[in-house]
């Protein structure tokens, strides 16, 4: 049978080992514990956000593929025209990520986010102008 004192000793040994592995060896013990705790909380929050973003992105791209079948039939687009439009959209989306982050640093979050929302609306409205040749 494991005693409570042994469990507490093992837990504190694991905590010290974890803090040494994460690179906080130059700090005193209370500061190390605080830093390890903050790192753990941050990692959980960031990972949850990342996984939610990946999941929503997957649903969005799958939804785009499913919508294309009915959309092409409804407005008379050929699959090649629809593919060109969505491909150009995603290529531009990937190409402008770095300049967008630089502009975010320059203009600040609220102003840049409002510009992005406006530009997103313009691009979405431009999709209404796609016509078959």
From TrEMBL:
The keyword Kinase does not apply. The keyword Ribosomal protein does not apply. It holds the Pfam family MFS_1. GO terms for cellular component: membrane. InterPro entries: MFS, MFS_trans_sf. It comes from the Eukaryota. It is found in: Membrane. GO terms for molecular function: transmembrane transporter activity. The chain crosses the membrane at residues 42-59, 79-98, 110-130. It is a multi-pass membrane protein. Keywords: Membrane, Transmembrane, Transmembrane helix, Transport. Gene3D superfamilies: MFS general substrate transporter like domains. PANTHER family: PERMEASE-RELATED, TRANSPORTER, PUTATIVE (AFU_ORTHOLOGUE AFUA_6G08340)-RELATED. This is Major facilitator superfamily (MFS) profile domain-containing protein. It comes from Tetradesmus obliquus (Green alga).
